[in-house]
Design a protein that fits this description.
The protein is an alpha+beta fold and 278 residues long. It is built from seven helices and 15 strands. The longest helix has 11 residues.
Length: 278
Amino acid sequence: MGSGFSGLVADCIGAPTPSNPGLGDIPESCVAVILTHLDPLEICKLARLNRVFREASSADLVWESKLPENYQILMKKLFSECPRNLAKKEIYARLCRPNRFDGGNKEVWMEQGRGQICVSVSWKAMKITGIDDRRYWTHIPSDESRFHQIAFLQQIWWLEVDGRVEFQFPRGTYSLYFRLRLGNPTKSPERRRVHDHKQVHGWNVKPVRFQFATSNNQNALSQCYLSGPGKWVNHHVGDFSVESSIEPTKIKFSMMQIDCTHTKGGLCLDSVLILPKG
């Protein structure tokens, strides 16, 4: 509908006459209703046409249709602010930005196109075997992470990663992923990013086990051998559904490789991602 309406607008541009009204003669309320059926990018483009479209594009009616159903709860959780004091367009803009919560080690943002909620949990918010022991782990600054730091596993016999998150997700189906990479990122003399794979070992001996459980009794378990050094991989653990956008969904997740017959190392751990499915 968006492209068809944009074409109609282009055809209508011209000097108005009594028998051929111009775009400026369309009531602002009518324009606002039409804009509710367009995506945000199209709305912003049409706002440049004239004053009527510009003012209609800021109407609460338009932007409330793009917000998640529980946006009032999310605003109070993330900003401790009553949404009644803000225009819906401003609420939309704030939710689209990366917003930290729970001490800054978890982040939520809204997809601009679909208006769906995404959550990322940093490794800093997880309980990890030996994480503070420099014999096993190093903490590396990285512009490839939302949290600007990754954990690099040099070598260990027993690996277990546990975390949890509690959030009021809008109704829908979500997928949970562990974001991992094999290989230590370094910089070449030319300042290009390269990867040292010398420390990568042990991941082809036994599979890594991933799992999660939700507060409404949904569970998922998967396992795989880690491979493909040099690139970030989102390892899909499973999917879960949210039926109430008012009640918080609690999720416990874990990753483990606890076979002590061999060591494993050369692994970068960034975060857990919870994304809308599809």
